[in-house]
Design a protein that fits this description.
By secondary structure, the chain is of the alpha/beta class. It contains 13 helices and 19 strands. The protein has helices spanning 2-15, 25-32, 46-52, 60-93, 115-121, 156-160, 163-171, 222-231, 256-267, 301-309, 396-413, 419-428, 462-470, and strands at 21-22, 34-41, 98-102, 107-114, 127-132, 135-138, 142-147, 180-185, 206-207, 242-243, 245-247, 253-255, 285-288, 290-291, 313-317, 338-343, 372-375, 379-382, 390-394. The strands form four sheets. Strands 8, 9, 10, 11, 13, 15, 16 and 17 form an eight-stranded parallel beta sheet that branches. The N and C termini lie far apart (71 Å).
Length: 471
């Protein structure tokens, strides 16, 4: 074995490419000897995804099935050389590494890669980079408080955005369309009284990439809270919608390998053990109340391009790094997602709500983020400690589910909306009565006006956006 490695390392020294180790990967390797890495291939899925947009399909299910099959075929073809080398390495050295292939981004994950393996991989012309596994987080709740659900005390946020007005319009429709909402979060207590009746079921409604648990569970509470705000029977914005979920955040941390596994599951759902994929079960909307500590990180850009190509609406919290400017977090700062800031019952921007602009100054190419704001303070919703337990918590994690719920209401009226239509109806339905924050970023002629990089285009209004959808 050692003779083989000596000969191979000599070959690497002669033939290896100068492939950079991105981030602090080199430092981790020097300190620990191994690292969890993602291998980036030269032939990524971007070209395929770009060409896919020109195709038309008779049904949404056919669209997603064709897209998934194309991405999987591309990954299988372009990843095989790398997989062969990894298998050879483990066979010869006996090293204990874990290998996971991802078709949604055409990357390969290796848990426990050492320097010798990386040197071997650098000999392959199909490999252009290595990066350590990124660990994001759910946006932690601010000031969690015990709460009780009372008959006369529905969540203020549901009332503030006039969800009851949208429900009345929804009831006037003869045949509302069934809508399925997905989420990447810490899981869901599916037996909670708010959620048990509209869970789509265990066969294609749940995936835990680590535990492979057969039914939804939540060790944190964050995922239960956000899902009930979207579809809860008493506290939800869209109580008639159905839900499914993926445990991309095992506690309060969201490992890149788990998030990408969830990204694939929600684009083409499987059974809880990862078998028998059925792309027709794809949700129309995915709520994401997680992100990094700062902006400008493109780790999930390709995954979201794939979601968008599948007709999925990605909704993200903008982050809890306020009140300072240019604090919008990734992926909430991406130009291909709908990002949400937090407002309170007085139409004030929450002090913790992250602000834009994203990608630079507005006058030189930066973009407005968040896109809009929604109630995110003192939000009452379900909790994971019992089937009738509730908490009041604050954060942009609580704001994004309000928007996700409104989009579910909109899809119940018009099932074939595009991303651009959804975003336009949301923006056109907002109210511009948010109060000027103490700290404003890039004021135009020293005036506070809309759109801005604090509230975005305004504060969410469910009834207005529903009317825009059906008009």
């Amino acid at each position: 074995m050692y003779k083989f490695l000596l000969l191979f390392c000599t070959f690497v020294w002669v033939n290896g490419q100068n492939i950079p180790l991105l981030g602090n990967l080199q430092k981790i390797l020097d300190q620990k000897g191994t690292a969890n890495i993602f291998i980036t291939l030269a032939d990524g899925p971007e070209k395929f995804l770009s060409g896919f947009l020109d195709q038309t399909f008779s049904t949404h299910a056919q669209q997603v099935e064709s897209l998934t099959r194309g991405l999987q075929d591309h990954a299988n073809k372009t990843q095989q050389v790398v997989i062969n080398l990894l298998n050879q390495f483990t066979a010869v050295t006996g090293e204990n590494i874990t290998i996971q292939q991802y078709w949604i981004t055409n990357q390969i994950y290796v848990k426990g890669a050492n320097k010798i393996l990386i040197l071997m991989l650098q000999t392959l012309g199909s490999v252009i980079g290595f990066i350590k596994e990124e660990i994001y987080a759910v946006f932690g709740p601010m000031e969690p408080k015990l709460a009780e659900l009372k008959d006369d005390e529905y969540t203020w946020g549901v009332q503030k955005i006039d969800a009851p007005g949208a429900w009345a319009l929804q009831d006037s429709l003869r045949t509302p369309n069934p809508v399925v909402v997905g989420a990447i979060d810490s899981g869901v207590r599916y037996t909670h009284s708010e959620l048990v009746e509209n869970f789509i079921g265990g066969d294609y409604g749940w995936y835990d990439p680590v535990g492979k648990t057969p039914l939804p569970n939540d060790d944190n509470g964050h995922g239960t809270h956000t899902m009930a705000t979207i579809v809860g029977k008493n506290v939800g914005v869209a109580p008639d919608a159905k839900w499914m979920a993926c445990k991309g955040c095992q506690t309060d941390e969201c490992a890149q390998s788990d998030v990408l596994s969830c990204g694939q599951f929600l684009m083409c759902p499987t059974k809880p053990d990862g078998t028998e994929p059925d792309c027709s079960k794809v949700p129309r909307i995915i709520n994401n109340s997680w992100g990094n500590d700062g902006g400008g990180d493109a780790t999930y850009k390709t995954m979201i391009i794939a979601w968008r190509s599948a007709g999925i609406i990605p909704i993200f919290s903008v982050g809890n790094s306020g009140p300072w400017c240019r604090t919008a977090t990734s992926p909430g700062d991406y130009d291909n997602v709908i990002s949400v800031g937090s407002s309170n019952s007085k139409n004030e921007l929450s002090q913790f709500s992250s602000k834009g602009p994203a990608g630079g100054l507005l006058l030189i190419g930066g973009s407005v983020k968040p896109d809009l704001s929604a109630p995110g303070e003192n939000t009452l919703s379900a909790w994971n400690t019992g089937d009738h337990d509730y908490r009041r918590i604050s954060g942009t994690s609580m704001a994004a589910p309000h928007v996700t719920g409104v989009v579910a209401l909109m899809f119940s009226a018009k099932s074939n909306m595009t991303y651009d239509e959804v975003k336009k109806n949301l923006i056109d339905g907002t109210t511009q009565d948010g109060k000027r924050p103490l700290i404003i970023c890039e004021p135009m002629l020293f005036k506070f006006r809309y759109p801005n990089v604090e509230f975005g285009y305004g504060i969410l209004n469910a009834k207005n956006s529903f009317l825009k959808t059906i008009s």
